[in-house]
Amino acid sequence: MKLKKEIPLKRIHFPSATYFLFCAIAMLFLASCSSSRRVANSSPEFTIIQTAKSYRGTPYRYGGTTRAGIDCSALVYHAFAAAGVQLPRTSTEQSKLGKKIPEGKILPGDVLFFATGKKKKEVSHTGIVTEVQKKEVRFIHASTSRGVTEDYLSNSYWTKAFLFAKRLETK
Predict the structure, then answer these.
(1) Among 1, 11, 86, 88, which residue's beta carbon has the most beta carbons within 10 A?
(2) What is the distance between the alpha carbons of residues 159 and 37, in angstroms, rounded to a whole number?
């Protein structure tokens, strides 16, 4: 049996400053490609999202408007009220406000509307977009089974129920 002679691999040595510069440029490039959309801490959308998130874990209650139990439209109502925006109390009425947004242009703070009832085209559920990252839309809502929680629009249940997104005036 004949043994093959191993050829040693050459190692490339970078001086530390060059290596640091290479890593810094790579990180900047990768960060610019992530297409993550977040909101500034001073924006009304930040207040809306943080208020909604403060309700996480609150149980669902049809017609509920408090931390003891809340429904989807009350969550949206209270979150926007924290930013000084008065909305109607029901998801159907809320859906009549604002400007429709194409799915590819959704931003944090936008409101999503769904048809989760028997009528396939009638608004019956709503949620607030909390994050958009690489076209993945995450939203917070009051789920009948899990209370206030976050989900992804790409989940098959929500994709089928999704009707449209709206951007509501916050200024």
Answers:
(1) 88
(2) 20
Note whether residue 58 is domain-resident: yes
How far is the first Cα of the chain from the last one, in angstroms, to the nearest whole number?
Answer: 81
Model's pTM, two decimal places? 0.78
Number of compact structural domains in the chain: 1
Tokens of 160: 């089928």
CA dist., res. 158 & res. 164, Å (int): 11
The model's pLDDT over 114-140, given as tens digits with 9 standing for 90+, comes to 999 888 899 999 999 999 998 899 999
Q: Which positions are annotated as active-site residues?
A: 72, 125, 141
What residue ranges in 65-124 does DSSP mark as E strands? 65-66, 69-70, 99-101, 111-114
Full domain range(s) for residue 51: 36-167
